[in-house]
Records
---
Amino acid sequence: MNSVLLKAKAQDIIRNSNPKVIRVAIVFLCISLVFSVLSSYLMGSVFTQKDIEQITAHIESGNTEYAIEYMMDKMPPAGSRLVDLLIQFVMSIVSIGFIIFILNTIRNNAPCFGNLMDGFGFPFRIIFLNLLEGVLIALWSILLIVPGIIAAYKYRMARYLLIDHPEYSVIQCIKESKRMMAGRKWDLFLLDLSFLGWAMLSVFPLIGWLVQIWTTPYFATTYALYYEQLAGHYDASTDYVNFQNDHSEWL
């Protein structure tokens, strides 16, 4: 894997895309922002300084049971937690829709803004995949942090396989991702590492959202190209000579 080549190819795709990947990414980010604000409102902390002082005092006095009950009373109601869970599910479905758009853009397969909603055609498979991945990664993480991280890399291609292979079960997608990533996890880790600077910029208030207008499509397109090469849909070697000529300062 030539990460520099993949990233250069991703930039060319973004520049020449129609509709513009950045425009679709802005719509995706706006949807994400709305859901994030709603989730924060539903699940936001309702503890005042006085509440914290009382809880701390009860714990210090050994009345732990009452402190736990006090905290539970201040937690968001069950209805809010349920709505927040639904929000997370919907957002995961829209995220898959964004990946579908990116794949369609790479493949010149009539990409459109409506692709963001395409995940609603198979929502339960998406939710099941997210839950299964989460459980498997959590189980590996019980052993140590490193096995959990390795497991996360094993399953990174499962979402792409879920999109490309409707005939696969969710478990088959997990297994096939594990097979595809055999011997490739270090490549993907290095690719992740190469984005670290951008990722750090994106966490800053306000400026982070501006940075994400670029990083969201840039990261998504690069990772989709990574999958395309693993799946045999894209041969980077055919672009290598052209990119050597056009981007010789990068290679």
---
Amino acid sequence: MTASSRRATVPAGRLTVPAGRATTVLRVLFALLISVHLGALLLNATTVVHLTKPALMPVLALWAQGRGGPWPLPVALLCGCAGDVLLQLGGETAFLAGMGCFAAGHLCYLALFARAGRPRTAPWVAAGYGAAWLGTVALLWPGLAPHLRLPVAGYSLLLTVMALAALGAGVRTGAGGALFMLSDTLIAAGLADWPRPPVPQFWIMATYIAAQWLLAAGATHGAVPPPRAGTGAHQPVTPVRR
């Protein structure tokens, strides 16, 4: 069976996605890691949490790479991994460094969406996202430590811009950007001593993992990885326009 005959058919005008055993294995492994990690959070199994959390994003990055994701995507996911590890260390220095890693990941996502040449969102939608950012920062500001106010405000602005760009890229990526905002708002609520749901870390990680998955799945939807040596000419990675 040739490589081309293993490709799943899609509607006319869309690029095909090669069915690869490796990407299937990685997807299953990612699902297992999610189940174990979230279950460990509910059971307060700290050791399991600390072992599984750093493995989540590298597995997703490998899956995205296998799906033909452009280079900013796996780099963004690995920046998320670095941020995850730093946040596990605890302390304000590690927190600020972790926030910097996530900010680098958002810049990679912005580069990814710019590279794909996605359409922009309507002005009223952009205004709504801007109002959400301003309102959230204004509410959080009094409860944040003075030295955290500007870093949190700047980071959340970058996150909002990324989420808005993700919305312009499609439904999946838009949902991913929105969930990323929700996850980080839950973290900021903890910094400001706001009320949060029971087992807040579970909800933070559940929304964060879903966000990264949706961003990766949306960005690789319809992407075609280059063929192996000897199987034909190089095909550029081109995300499908919605």
---
Amino acid sequence: MSRLAEYMPAADPPARIREAERFARDILPDVSRTFAISIRFLPGTLGRAVMTAYLLCRIADTIEDDGATPPARRGELLEEFLRTFDDRDTADAFPTRASGLTGDAAHLALVERTDLVLVLFRTLPPRTRERVAHWVREMGRGMAKFVRTYPAGIRIQTLAEYREYCYYVAGTVGCLLTELWHEHARAVGKREFERLWAKCQAFGEALQTVNILKDIAWDAQHENAIYIPARELAAEGSGHETLLSPAHLEENHRAVVRFIELARTDLDDALEYILLIPRRAIRIRAFCVLPLLFAYATLRDLAGTRAMLTVGGSVKISRREVRSLMVFGLLAIVSNGALRRLVRRVKARPFTPVPAAG
């Protein structure tokens, strides 16, 4: 037996693989509409690898976000989840072990069929499987660290800690995707990979930063988590305990403005990452460009509102703009100049040339 064969997991029955494929396709739009749109552009094994990796990351995220489960238990579950990559028995038993979690119904439905996601994981080529496992482990261990550091609910203290958190939950994704591009796309050779690698963390972290900003109120109210650093709020005369206080709205907004500027810089780095993807890899560009455009539009709206700092407040771009960005974003991906012009337009004002549906 070859050394490679020695580490190949035994094949799952074809019927179970088909069941896993159906489950993944069906659950994906429920756990992320944006990702479900983008994944359609990635072909074959690359698409399967990215979809599987996304679902694995979402399982880890669901465990981390469950504020009702004691931190010690969440830390244990995260570590047990990471062992499922190497142990089929642990994988099959994990849904039962993770029962009792609370959170979004679709996310819980995903956790309940972790075993099926791991069936897909075992169908990936050995090198792909190894890199997916590596980066999901890096993410999961970082999540476990923060869960245990803040047992009463995550309360980020400093800008450095904020950056560390963003690396674990999103920078790792940028690294994983870039390795998958190199492995599965001929257009992303060694030279292209090295250029992308220099910016891949920024690509992942940029999207996470915008999500943190738009969900400030939601995270504080529903997940007992505050990611705006205490030190930055204190410098403006506020703090975590008054983050959603109407009496401190302006102080809180001044602190958040700095993070809006950080997010804008991160998004510009993420744009440069996409522009470095060879135009021959058009499907990869298509996968990357829509989330970036949605993030630019959301950040533009964040800069003009304080809704994310009010109880029940939210920031969401219109469905019409989403449709317009889908159309014009895909048209622009073949030209770096066209994509830069589209980004400048989105930064300035809502982009809605496509007529509203209905």
